[in-house]
Write a structure and sequence with these properties.
Blueprint: H1 12-21, E1 24-31, E2 34-41, E3 43-46, E4 52-59, H2 66-70, E5 73-85, E6 97-112, H3 115-129, H4 143-146, E7 152-167, H5 174-187, H6 190-201
Antiparallel strand pairs: 1-2, 1-5, 3-4, 4-7, 5-6, 6-7
Pfam families: FMN_bind_2 (PF04299)
InterPro entries: Split_barrel_FMN-bd, TR_PAI2-type
Protein name: FMN-binding negative transcriptional regulator
Length: 204
């Protein structure tokens, strides 16, 4: 991912928090000579050796997983808030742009089987059911329902490289930076408010 130095985020704790909060990503690999992509939750975890990994699964009906065996190199893309930035918000002439937060994770994928699959599913369900009024637990599902796990391919991705971009108008002076925040708040969309809040946290 091309990222100018001013927009690079190398704060590992921030990046991990971002991945935990924006875990619905795009898994990209090459299968049968073609690029394939699937939109799925990819959960940040740590393996037995203490290395950072991503965990996930795809349907066996999805041909993408066939490529995991031939080539274990993958790219996972995670997107955060984003918003259009009008150059009319500056006190000088310039071009419009876009502010956004994104993380690209490179790694090596391996298929997991047996109890490791169930443990991965338990963590996934527990994370997203924690605020539910009547939380579902994998442990409580019937054998009949759990037989559906035969229809998935679960995997772990050992992370080899992370590239993180946080483009939040760091190249503007304090006056224009504040103007952009004000205009984003006036726009009052979910994305514009989210980017305005992120800009407030980001020093210029």
């Amino acid at each position: 991912m091309y990222t100018p130095e001013i927009y690079k985020n190398e704060n590992q704790e921030e990046i991990k928090k971002f991945l935990q909060e924006n875990s619905f990503g795009i898994l990209i690999n090459q299968t049968n000579g073609k690029l394939c992509a699937t939109h799925i939750p990819l959960e940040l975890d740590t393996n037995k050796e203490g290395k950072d990994i991503l965990c996930g699964h795809v349907s066996k009906e999805n041909p993408q997983w066939n490529g995991f065996i031939d080539n274990d190199e993958i790219l996972a893309v995670f997107s955060g808030p984003h918003s259009y930035i009008s150059s009319s918000w500056y006190d000088h002439e310039n071009v419009p742009t876009w502010n956004y937060i994104a993380v690209h994770v490179y790694g090596k994928i391996k298929i997991i089987e047996g109890e490791a699959v169930i443990e991965s599913l338990k963590k996934l369900v527990d994370k997203y059911e924690q605020n539910s009024e009547n939380p579902v637990r994998v442990e409580d599902l019937s054998k009949k329902t759990m037989m559906q796990t035969r229809g998935i391919v679960a995997f772990e991705i050992e992370i080899t490289e992370i590239q993180a971009t946080r483009k939040l108008s760091q190249n503007r002076d304090e006056k224009n930076h504040q103007n952009i925040i004000s205009e984003l708040e006036k726009a009052n969309t979910n994305q514009s408010i989210a980017i305005a809040n992120e800009m407030k946290k980001c020093p210029i």
